[in-house]
Design a protein that fits this description.
By secondary structure, the protein is α+β, with helices and mostly antiparallel strands. The protein has one domain (5-110): Yope Regulator, Chain: A. The chain has helices at 5-15, 54-61, 90-110, and strands spanning 22-27, 30-35, 38-44, 47-51, 66-68, 79-82. A 6-stranded antiparallel beta sheet has the order 1-2-3-4-6-5. The protein starts with a helix and ends with a helix.
Length: 111
């Protein structure tokens, strides 16, 4: 499994700040964190991968260090990559954790 272990530890600490229960799963050659079975945030190589609601995706992609997740060689809907320089602080990481959780909750409300 080729993912940045320290980043995974940081993500675990970030999700621990929430009362919601997350589970871990190996996906995309990395490690992802799910809320009620919905992928929220994860680590692939040295990048953070985050699921975001569609209305927020374009604004995020306009920022340096954030790109569409192209794991399949084409952009994946509602997935972004976040480079390490964008998540230098725990507050930065918490912002993306909240986005991932927001996405999962929205998808669960659609069911």
């Amino acid at each position: 499994m080729a993912y940045h272990e320290l980043l995974a530890i940081r993500v675990r600490a970030s999700i621990a700040l929430f009362p919601e229960i997350f589970t871990e799963k190996k996906m995309f050659g990395g490690l992802v964190f799910l809320y009620k079975g919905k992928m929220t945030i994860g680590v692939v190589k040295n990048k953070l991968v985050v699921r975001v609601i569609t209305p927020k995706k374009d604004d995020l992609l306009a920022k340096d260090g954030i790109s569409p997740m192209d794991f399949t060689k084409k952009p994946m809907k509602e997935f972004i990559y976040v480079l390490p320089e964008v998540i230098k602080t725990e507050e930065d990481l918490l912002f993306f954790t909240e986005l991932g959780l927001e996405h999962a909750k929205q998808k669960l409300n659609e069911i």
